Amino acid sequence: MMETENSISINEKQTDSKQVILEIKDLYKSFGDNTVLNGFNMTLHKGENLVVMGKSGSGKSVMIKCLVGLMQADSGYISVMGKEIKTLDRETLDILRSDIGFLFQGSALYDSMTVRENLEFPMRRHKEKLGNVTDTKPLVLEALESVGLAHTMDLMPEELSGGMKRRIALARTLILRPKIILYDEPTSGLDPITSKEIIELMRNIQKKYDTSSLIITHDMDCARVISERMILLVDGINYAEGTYEELVKSNDPKVEAFFKK
Amino acid sequence: MANVLKAPKRLLRFLTEIGELAYFAGRFFKEAVKPPFEFKELLRQCYQMGNRSLILVLVTGFIIGLVIDLQSRPTMIQFGAVSMMPNMVGISIVRELGPVITALVCAGRIASGIGAELGSMRVTEQIDAMEVSGTNPFKYLVVTRIIATTLMLPLLVILGDAIALYGSALVEYYKGGVSFQLYFSTVFKALSYGDLVPATIKSFFFGFAIGLVGCFKGYYSKKGTAGVGVAANTAVVFASMLLFVIDFVAVFISDIFYDL
User: What is the mean predicted confidence (pLDDT) over B151-170?
Assistant: First the structure.
């Protein structure tokens, strides 16, 4: 089934009946002469794990940054939980952002703060959402326990390993009880064992907190284990879409290139 | 020839940067008056900047006081004006040398520190992480640092001036037998509001310039880890240059008001 002129959909599941929590239509973004996104389309449904795969430099991270307003798209429509991002003022955008967790590729922990301060930082502007709590320690502890690192509360980021930093960053995204979690290369730079632990953690978190996840990755193992649906981002468009099993069987050369060992 | 051809491009880039810096300063004033205010972070930055630069300012100030006195003394003896030493040293330190040298030391210490810190936060996506957590990173990182440097530099200048005068007094005590009491009473008699007020006001501007340039270079740092080094380096160069421009303007304006 052809979705657009250049993209192919191999998805046979009926996902349209589910509530759309995030939507991108005709997204364009260029840097000088280099067009990164060339009319990208995507929808994320409530409770879904959607993986977007693409080669390095294919625009995955740019797309995810446009989603949270960290970058301005040249044109296109981005809606998160029914709100169009580019029409929001700063205050409304900040409130919306409290419902979106973002796990950065390099963890992005604040290196001048302890683990506890890192987790408390997002709460500063969103105390109302958490019931105006005065003692933040139980919340921090709960988030740290959910990633299995409750004992690191008073450590500095420099004292943590790469895997631990990624877990702490994940705990930080959970602190505001987000409805959507965006993962930017969650397993990049990690050894295979730690990668598996992170993937397992992502699955557990989704079950426990009932979140929807958009995962940007080029790690095929991660995509296979975690995805319910996948989008292949090629030449700035959603070139192919479907479940892992459906895409593996595709005969399209560009799709096959992703799954070749 | 190639350098000549590149000159207009460089000039254009320089002017663009001046424009961006002015826009950045405008954003600072807009954000600084809008709540919520980051008082805790402001106090932390004030403490860090004052504390980090204090020893350096004191050592530099002391040496400058000693050296000026030692270098000027033979000439003053030749003119039979050695008794004017406290007046001359006092006025030159309070009016010009104290603020400028303290500001230059702080430009090296603070502007480079801010440039490197914010630059590193930018390339490691920590600033983006703040943004997506719903906290305004400009307010938290930039506004607090610029206010901290603006407030702390005048205090450092006062301490730097005091220790420089002490250094000079020490030379006068050992070389000329002038007591500390006589030295300082002569200095205070020689100083007028026309010396103190403009020097104090320009110290605030120096502090503002150091914070502004350091934050500007760091906040918009690019090109990965190499960009962090560039941000730190250019922050010092740009801030130092700006200090001399401010100094020139300040002296020019003081001349109108106080007829120096």
Answer: 95
Own/partner long-range contacts of B30-35 (Cβ < 8 Å, ≥24 apart): B31/B136, B31/B138, B31/B139, B31/B142, B31/B143, B32/B143, B32/B146, B32/B147, B34/B139
The interface predicted TM-score of the complex, written ipTM, equals 0.86
- For residue A106, give the nearest of B124, B132, B134 by CB distance: B124
Mutate to test the interface with A, among B132, B135, B139, B145 (most CBs of A within 10 A): B132
Per-residue model confidence as pLDDT tens digits over B88-108: 999 999 999 999 999 999 999
| The residue count for chain A | 261
pLDDT digits (tens, 9 = 90+) for A22-57: 999 999 999 988 999 999 999 999 989 999 998 888
Instruction: Give the best-scoring range by mean pLDDT among A196-210, B4-18, B232-246.
Output: B232-246
**Distance from C-alpha of B28 to C-alpha of A153, rounded to nearest angstrom:** 34
Show residues of chain A in contact with B45, CB under 8 Å. none
User: What does residue A212 show for φ and ψ, rounded to 5 degrees?
Assistant: -100, 140
Locate the domains of chain A by residue range: 1-11+18-99+179-261, 112-177
Q: For residue B133, list chain A residues with Cβ-Cβ distance below 8 A.
A: 97-98, 121-122, 125, 172, 176
Structure tokens at B151: 């407030």
Question: What pLDDT score does A4 carry?
Answer: 47
Global pTM value: 0.87
Find residue A229's DSSP bridge partners.
A50
Q: Decide if A11 contacts A245 (C-beta within 8 A).
A: no
Q: What value does the CA radius of gyration of chain B take, rounded to a whole number of Å?
A: 21
Which residues in chain B are contacts of A97 at CB distance < 8 A?
132-134
Q: Do B128 and A176 touch (CB under 8 A)?
A: no
Superfamily per CATH, domain A1-11+18-99+179-261: P-loop containing nucleotide triphosphate hydrolases (3.40.50.300)
B120, B126, B136, best to mutate vs chain A, most A CBs in 10 Å:
B126
Spell out the residues 6+ positions from residue A39 whose beta carbon is closer than 8 angstroms to its own. Answer: A4, A26, A27, A28, A76, A236, A237
Burial class (CB in 10 A: 0-12, 13-18, 19+), B164: buried
List CB contacts of A175: < 8 A, sequence separation 6 or more: A119, A120, A122, A123, A139, A140, A143
Q: How far apart are CA A235 and CA B36, in angstroms?
A: 43
Across the interface, whether the CB atoms of A108 and B128 are under 8 A apart is answered yes
For A120, A142, A144, A201, B155, the CA distances from A151, given in Å and listed in that order, are 16, 12, 8, 17, 42
Distance in Å, alpha carbon of B29 to nearest chain A alpha carbon: 17
pLDDT for the residue A14: 46
Cβ of B133 within 8 Å of Cβ of A121? The answer is yes
